[in-house]
Amino acid sequence: MNTNGCTATTKSGSPCSATARVGTGYCPWHDPSLEVERHGWKINAGRSKSTRNRARKKILSAALDLHEIDGALCQALLDVLEGSLEPNIATAAATVARTVSAIRAASELEARLSALEAQVGIAPVVRRFS
Predict the structure, then answer these.
(1) What pTM did the predictor assign?
(2) Under a CB-based contact definition with an 8 Å cutoff, are residues 50 and 85 in contact?
(3) Where are the domains of the chain?
């Protein structure tokens, strides 16, 4: 028998198999003194699993430079020509790539315009892509 095990029982009625915290006899999931902390853990776990947070992580990890986008589109073209990729998927990828390129170009123009305005002393204007 595990003498360091949690003394609580699970929802199904079987003994908890987790290791007890020192001096408490309970694991973190059953320790009554950690009820407030457990509530915070659940909230944070829910936030990290939210669709918005998952999308943000995925977008940041998937950001490509224009050379990588070009390579991916060229590969998509080759895949369409050999029949291993549906043309509509390649079209969707090209549409997204075109949008990314347009946003980056607009952002660059906004930055350049702001720099020029600063040089001639024109008050900065709040812009969408800055």
Answers:
(1) 0.47
(2) no
(3) 64-120
Whether residue 104 contacts residue 84, with contact meaning beta carbons closer than 8 Å, is answered with no
Backbone angles phi and psi of 67, in degrees to 5:
-70, -40
Question: In sequence order, what are the residues at sequence separation of 6 or more whose Cβ sits closer than 8 angstroms to the Cβ of residue 16?
Answer: 5, 6, 7, 8, 9, 10, 27, 29, 30
Residue 3: alpha-carbon gap to chain centroid: 41
pLDDT in tens, 84-95: 999 999 999 999
Q: What is the DSSP string of 10-75?
A: -TTSSBP-SBPPTTTSS-TTT-GGGHHHHHHHHHHHHHHTSHHHHHHHHHHHH---HHHHHHHHHH
